[in-house]
Amino acid sequence: MEVGIVGKPNVGKSTFFAAATLVDVQIANYPFTTIDANIGVSYATAVHPCKEIGCVPNPQNYEYRNGVSLIPIKMIDVAGLVPGAHERRGLGNKFLDDLRMASALIHIIDVTGKTDVEGQPTEYHDPVEDIEFLEKEIDYWIHSILKKNWDKFSKRIKLQGLKLSKAIAEQLTGIGVSEEDVLQALHKVELSDDPTKWSDNDLFNFVRELRKINKPLIIAANKADAASDEDIERIIKEGKKRGYTVIPTSAAAELTLRKAANAGYIDYIPGAKDFKVIKPLNEKQKHGLDLIREKVLDRFGSTGVQEVINRAIFDILQLVPVYPVEDEHKLTDQFGNVLPHVFLMKKGATPRDLAYKVHTDLGKSFLYAVNAKTHRRIGEDYELQYNDIIKIVATAR
Ligand SMILES: Nc1nc2c(ncn2[C@@H]2O[C@H](COP(=O)(O)OP(=O)(O)OP(=O)(O)O)[C@@H](O)[C@H]2O)c(=O)[nH]1
């Protein structure tokens, strides 16, 4: 599951990325640790089931802190975006390449309005324009891929009687579009079954719906520490009108807190509403941290960075953390590790889907599953719930 950070220059993207991927963890040998400078490991946080049932976990593919699971996710700092990226302006190509991989986007905007559309300092620039411009860039990009061979392509669909949703999804596999995505978008626009009858406007409307489904996004109203309440409230309202969740953030504050925590000065769990000083600070450090407490944590309840990440994973992508175990009484794997693994499953996924996620062989030999919290056997079509602990029973292999 990959989350992309997007936005025009100078809004605090690099700061957000640095903060989001800076976690002091012991083990970091996930498959995607350091592939590229702009790819990092970030963590979604969720209450750990042990907090509820009173156990001590031995996490193998996630981290655990004071009753909280830190679940690794891949984060991509998408190359700088300027108007016209779809026409290869600026880092256009790189931008679109990075974007291809992302399942959800975090759009960072400067809520103070002090950066213009190219990322230059200015007196006032309306950040709402940035929301619209990003949508447009992505729409133009998807549109250009479809438009390239549209006449030939639509005729072929008609002549050969191809399934429209399948054919379009095949054209767009490169950007991670599934047939299900296409079906959902088609359902929204209600266009003719015959694509040769689609006008360019129809195609554009379809693309817009598809983008909302395939590249869903959440907005981080960054530099909130330097913005007025009115500016923040306005952008939340304007975002909502357009169907977006907007979270005020201070990426700079989060980065400072995580650095201080890593250096052992403070106890701070990402997303927390406060921190505890655990090592003597000099005057300057103390002043800096006091300011963060007063101007950010007390004002907003947190720096917002972790909330954005969590919302992207749990609300926007609708994933639920699920813990598979082999022994449903001790909640262990075959080696005695308590709740060793967590998997993020799509809402609506079933125990069989979980079995496949653990291992293809386990999926193939799946017989039934047991809910380890209730010790009850659960049905084929049971929808996995947040923090479920599941034992999978399979045929002997
Ligand atoms: N007040 C405030 N300033 C911030 C915050 N986040 C970033 N900044 C400042 O904004 C400026 C730009 O931050 P960057 O993280 O470099 O922005 P960027 O979007 O990555 O910019 P490019 O690398 O040019 O694409 C820097 O001076 C940061 O210190 C924040 O939360 N609050």
From TrEMBL:
InterPro entries named among the record's database cross-references: Beta-grasp_dom_sf (IPR012675), G_OBG (IPR031167), GTP-bd (IPR006073), P-loop_NTPase (IPR027417), TGS (IPR004095), TGS-like (IPR012676), YGR210-like_G4 (IPR013646)
UniProt KW keywords: GTP-binding, Nucleotide-binding
CDD domains cross-referenced by the UniProt entry: TGS_MJ1332_like (cd01669), Ygr210 (cd01899)
Keyword Nucleotide-binding: yes
Alphabetized GO MF terms: ATP hydrolysis activity; GTP binding
GO CC, alphabetical: cytoplasm
Nucleotide-binding among keywords: yes
Location of the OBG-type G domain: 1-269
Family: Belongs to the RelA/SpoT family.
Protein name: Predicted GTPase, containing TGS domain
